[in-house]
Design goal:
Number of strands: 0
Radius of gyration: 38 Å
Domain Exportin-T C-terminal: 317-967
Organism: Petrolisthes manimaculis
Shape: globular
Oligomer: single chain
Protein name: Exportin-T
GO molecular function: small GTPase binding; tRNA binding
Helix content: over 70%
Pfam family, one: Exportin-T
């Protein structure tokens, strides 16, 4: 073996040497004698070999073991095993421990040989493996790693096996149970005893092996006095206890009879309790406590699972298990209340399952109620932020706590579903007590109280989300009065002025969640509006608070607009400075609100204006006052953009214009069917706005940025305006948007045209007739431009444009605009039709293919009868459409197991049946005499297909899938 050639594997910068090394490695793998050379290199060189050479040799031997070993001759197999045994012995006897990755690769190689040879060709494998243990600690380590590798190959449920492999693994386990497991377990015990002081890492590894094998071996081999006593002893040893806890967890989660499992768990708990292991209060080793919490969680979950498995008639056994569960709940609460969140979270499954258990049992006892109440107090306490939480610059620790809080809320929700009156009572006491003394309480307590009130909204059921009214049942009335009492205190206590941003945020979240409170008690609305508008809300020193309250303000206005309209002009006057567009040369002074935040404020202002009971002229005046400063600013910006030469400044100006367009578009969301843009007299205001922004686009600078804003505004105006108002502006808008028709620009423009066609349909005919050819020509040109072969981004853009083009044609043929296509010059129409056929067959995008077949079907429906369509269309049906219905599904890229592709298949099938409906037996004759002979189909299959074609649509769809599956197999 030429080991020096392999050095290039670790020199990727030397491309020639690296390529030679890869080629040599591949030769070794593929060569029939590669494994011999590698085996000889290992056995002759021994542990003193270079680590990289060892690893490559083991890789080559692994490749042989996976792919050729099972089919090798007996002599080759013996030779292979000899190399492996000699290498194992060398590793076991070396002075220094081998590198972990070499040990793992060796163990993996042993396991691959094991699954092939045991028990038939190597029945003494386990005995031979056990015999190496006398060679010392290195041998023990390799022995344990080999057992774990065998577990991975034979037992690991996460690895998907073939049926043959599963049968093989079952045979191996059955044989091991009969002939090897007792010896293995004895060796494990010996390792636990012999090395617990001198080599704790070996003992921990042995714990892992026991935990892995316990799932399928006889439980009595481990759950006995000698093993249990040793495991409990190890729970007291700092270097051993984490692995011991995991091992015990695996033992108690082993599948077994419910009563037997309960007895096993109870015996473990008794021993652990007597040993003092279950009292973690004084232990500061959080890593171990997480493992111990996981063990407690497993104990609880497994006991509850045992209770659920017992038949309801076995009442005595069920009661015995229930009592066992109940006795563990105080342990659960102790760990759940830990100051370390990862310890607390480790028992959440037990907590949730316990709540579910009580729900299944029905009546709740006084003891259970007390335990649930204690759990609720733990949840409330653990909800509080840690004093080290960084609200300014959240990192990994903060993300972990946020995730922990979400899991804690699940427990809270489960408690509320089980004992709503208890949760309501405890929450009320905590919220009222804390809010009444919020100024002297830590912010963590205050935030937890407001969060608790907020979470009740999801945890407690309410009719249509209204917690402040409902049926006259006792519990509903209690809940209503309690929620009202808490909300009244929230809005009157002054806590909205708390200096900590976490409290401020939670206050406004509560206000937005319980907006229906203010419809029943509107006298609190002025105070809440003031909080939103002053330094507590959108003028808060904290940018997160300002940003979030801007959004929440728009939500509150949307929900309460009928209650707020009386304050509209006062609110608008207070919003004036927040509605000013930020200057582009603002230096280092950021505006109070970001652009995104400002959109919500503009939307809220527009909603207030439109919701009023005033005359249309008054509404139009207020809307004009709202938007006129924006338009004035845009006029100045457009003039400056035309003069500006600095590209950086040009980009800033364009972004400001785009934001102004977004602001204008956002205000249009205030209109509704009841308060339409026409009814409010605002049509001309928005048409003037659109013309203004089209003029900005025609400046010709930063077209992509400004154009994005114009498209956004047009999308909104299509929703709000009628065709008579909007359509006159379409030609100049389209001309401006398509001034430089790049693939990206065209892809963005087509959805706008599709939206307009879908709404106005036949009204669009003159415009579509005018724009169709220039637009399609631009698309064809853009798609035919050469691009770099490795430019993936540009290729993706082209694919999106092609898909958009087919959707555009689909929109035309589906909305009464076929005359536009019929009026095309025949040569141009032929080019368009061929592009559709090409898309149906060649374009590997099932969504686009489906649309192509929709187009062909619609054209067939309209033009498939003689003299109903353009000249030559019937011939086109037979030369192009019918073949496409066969060629597309036969493509290798047409995946009949993909859901989207099946939809494309269904559309192609429908298209072909549409041809049959229009042309009748003429199609059948064509298929029999001309098309099917080219496919070399048997007469029986031809008859079968033609019969299916003439049947109903569902039958033909199902048949076609089978037909093409057979054809492609």
């Amino acid at each position: 073996m030429e080991a020096h050639l392999l050095q290039g594997l670790w020199a990727p910068d030397n491309h020639q040497q690296h390529a030679q090394a890869l080629e040599y490695l591949q030769q070794l793998r593929e060569s029939a004698d590669g494994w011999r050379m590698c085996g000889a290199t290992l056995t002759n060189g021994g542990p003193q070999l270079d680590d990289k050479v060892k690893f490559v040799c083991l890789q080559v031997m692994e490749h042989h073991a996976r792919n050729r070993y099972a089919a090798a001759t007996p002599e080759e197999q013996v030779h292979f095993r000899q190399h492996l045994s000699q290498w194992m012995t060398a590793l076991c006897m070396c002075t220094d421990p081998e590198k972990v990755f070499i040990q793992n690769k060796t163990a993996q190689l042993m396991s691959l040989v094991f699954v092939v040879d045991y028990p038939t060709r190597w029945p003494s494998f386990i005995t031979d493996l056990l015999s190496t243990l006398s060679l010392g600690p290195h041998a023990v380590q390799l022995y344990l790693r080999t057992l774990m590798a065998i577990d991975t190959e034979v037992v690991d449920r996460e690895i998907i096996h073939t049926q043959a492999e599963s049968d093989r693994n079952t045979r191996i386990k059955d044989t091991m149970r009969e002939h090897g497991v007792v010896e293995l377990t004895n060796s494990w015990y010996d390792i636990l005893v012999k090395y617990e002081k001198s080599h704790p890492e070996l003992v921990c590894h042995c714990h892992d092996v026991i935990g892995a094998y316990i799932s399928w071996i006889d439980i009595s081999l481990i759950a006995n006095d000698r093993f249990v006593c040793k495991l409990v002893d190890h729970l007291k040893e700092p270097l051993l206890r984490e692995a011991a806890a995991d091992c015990i967890h695996e033992i108690i989660t082993k599948g077994m009879d419910p009563v037997t499992k309960t007895q096993l768990i109870e015996s473990f708990v008794t021993v652990l309790d007597q040993a003092g292991v279950l009292k973690p209060v004084d232990d500061d080793d959080s890593d171990f406590l997480v493992k111990l919490a996981r063990l407690i969680n497993g104990i609880g979950v497994q006991l509850i699972l045992s209770w659920q498995k017992l038949d309801k008639k076995e009442s005595e056994k069920r009661e015995m298990v229930r009592q066992a569960v109940e006795n563990k709940v105080n342990l659960l609460l102790t760990f759940m209340a830990s100051e370390y969140d990862d310890i607390s979270a480790a028992v959440f499954d037990f907590a949730r399952d316990y709540i579910q258990l009580i729900k299944q049992m029905g009546a709740i006892t006084a003891v259970e109620r007390g335990l649930l109440e204690n759990m609720l107090y733990v949840v409330i306490t653990k909800t509080k932020y840690d004093e080290n939480y960084n609200f300014t610059q959240a990192g990994e620790d903060e993300a972990m706590f946020d995730d922990y809080r979400k899991k804690l809320k699940v427990v809270f929700d489960n408690l509320a579903a089980l004992v709503p009156e208890l949760v309501l009572q405890v929450s009320k006491e905590y919220v009222l007590t804390t809010l009444n003394r919020w100024q002297s309480s830590p912010y963590e307590d205050v935030e937890a109280a407001v969060s608790l009130l907020y979470n009740l909204g999801e945890a407690l059921p309410a009719s249509h989300g209204n917690h402040f009214s409902g049926p006259s049942q006792c519990l509903v009335q209690v809940k209503t009065s309690t929620m009202q009492e808490m909300m009244q205190l929230l809005v009157t206590s002054g806590v909205s002025g708390h200096s900590h941003p976490a409290v401020s945020l939670q206050f406004f979240e509560c206000v937005a969640r319980y907006e229906k409170f203010f419809t029943s008690e509107p006298h609190y609305i002025p105070g809440i509006l003031a909080a939103f508008l002053d330094t507590r809300g959108m003028r808060n020193p904290n940018p997160r608070v300002r940003s979030r309250t801007s959004y929440l303000f728009s939500r509150v206005v949307r929900c309460l607009k009928s209650n707020i309209v009386g304050y509209t002009e006062d609110i608008l006057s207070q919003l004036t400075d927040l509605l000013v567009l930020a200057p582009i040369d603002n230096g280092q002074i950021p505006p109070l609100l970001t652009n995104d935040d400002q959109l919500y404020v503009f939307e809220a202002a527009a909603m207030l204006i439109i919701a009023g009971n005033t005359e249309p002229g008054h509404k139009e005046g207020l809307m004009r006052n709202l938007l006129s400063p924006v338009f004035a600013k845009v006029t100045v910006l457009a003039e400056r953009l035309a003069r500006e030469q600095d590209p950086v400044n040009q980009a800033s100006i364009a972004k400001s214009i785009c934001h102004a367009t977004a602001v204008t578009a956002r205000t249009s969301k205030a209109f509704s069917n009841q308060n339409s843009i026409q009814a409010c007299g605002c049509v001309q205001l928005y048409l003037d706005a659109l013309q203004l922004f089209i003029n900005c686009l025609n400046v010709g600078v930063e077209r992509e940025v400004v154009g994005a804003g114009v498209r956004q505004l047009m999308h909104r105006l299509v929703v709000c305006l009628d065709g008579e108002s909007l359509l006159p502006l379409l030609p100049p808008a389209s001309q401006a948007l398509l001034h430089t028709p790049s693939p990206a620009v065209l892809t963005e423009y087509l959805p706008l045209i599709n939206q307009i066609i879908t709404k106005f349909q036949k009204e669009m005919s003159p415009f579509v007739h005018t724009i169709f050819m220039p637009l399609v020509s631009a698309i064809f040109t853009a798609l035919s431009e050469p691009i770099e072969e490795n430019d993936e981004e540009e290729q993706r853009t082209r694919r999106l444009l092609q898909r958009s083009y087919y959707l555009f044609l689909t929109t035309i043929v589906s909305h009464h605009l076929l005359p536009v296509l019929a009026a095309l010059d025949n040569t141009i129409l032929q080019q368009v039709l061929m592009s559709v056929v090409q898309g149906a067959v060649e374009f590997p995008d099932p969504v686009a293919q489906k649309n192509c077949f929709v187009i062909l079907r619609r054209l067939t429906e309209a033009w498939g009868v003689k003299d109903m369509g353009p000249p030559g269309f019937v011939e086109f049906l037979y030369t192009q459409v019918v073949p496409a219905c066969f060629l597309a599904p036969l493509k290798t890229t047409f995946d009949l197991n993909d859901a989207q592709t099946i939809l494309a298949l269904h559309e192609s099938v429908t298209c072909l049946q549409t041809v049959y409906r229009k042309r009748g037996d003429e199609l059948i004759t064509y298929l029999r005499s001309q098309y099917f002979p080219k496919m070399d189909l048997s007469p029986e299959l031809v008859n079968e297909y033609c019969q299916a074609l003439t049947s109903d649509a569902k039958v033909f769809r199902n048949y076609s899938k089978i037909f093409f599956q057979r054809a492609k197999s």
